[in-house]
């Protein structure tokens, strides 16, 4: 007669560990750095425009020939501030991504394209420190790629979009099953 030893309660079989790892895959967290970088980057640029004075940005837009520079300056600041915050918190990402991408494309084609791809152009190193040339469109393309990734893969964990989707799905289930006896599993979901 053989005896079976019970495993200590904290021990886990290798298949149990693999199941836990696959359930809590690191891949699901991939959108979070995208949201943090893009959201903070846009928000910081909007705040910088406000701190320097929106009139200064209006003057820049006027100098490069942007039509309706006053309106476009404030629209850009609005997109940068509120779009940045929305992406940072993972809220309404599909809707705010389009105007954010539009701002980036305008920046690429009206400002950065003549300076080439590279964002960092070291011109010289002097006693005062390094001197850089005008930035190219590299960073704008990185922002576009991050926004496209968020559109395709979703906002990831810790996102307001997920909370909204869960609330909407629960409400939809309640409305769809109103007046009908629900199975036990569905009843638990709709009673939240």
Task: Note down, in words, how this protein is organized.
The structure is a single chain. The protein has 192 residues and is mainly alpha-helical. The protein folds into 2 domains: 29-157, no CATH class; 159-192. It has helices spanning 14-23, 31-52, 54-63, 69-89, 93-112, 138-153, 160-176, 184-190; strands at 122-126, 129-132. A two-stranded antiparallel ribbon has the order 1-2. Helix 2 packs antiparallel against helix 4, helix 3 crosses helix 4 and helix 4 crosses helix 5 (93-112). The protein is globular and about 80 Å long. It starts with 13 loop residues before the first helix and ends with a helix. 19% of the residues are buried. The mean pLDDT is 85.
- Count of distinct structural domains: 2
Strand proportion: under 5%
Helix content: 55-70%
Task: Profile the largest sheet.
Answer: 2 strands, antiparallel
Strand order of the largest sheet: 1-2
**How far is it from the N-terminal to the C-terminal residue, by CA?**
51 Å
Radius of gyration: 25 Å
Question: Rough shape?
Answer: globular
Would you report the number of β strands? 2
Structural class: mainly alpha
Order of helices and strands: HHHHHEEHHH
Mean pLDDT: 85
User: Could you list the spans in which at least 5 consecutive residues all have pLDDT below 50?
Assistant: none
Number of helical stretches of at least 4 residues: 8
Oligomer: single chain
List the keywords.
192 residues; mainly alpha; two-stranded antiparallel sheet; 8 helices; globular
Note the topology.
Elements: H1 14-23, H2 31-52, H3 54-63, H4 69-89, H5 93-112, E1 122-126, E2 129-132, H6 138-153, H7 160-176, H8 184-190
Antiparallel strand pairs: 1-2
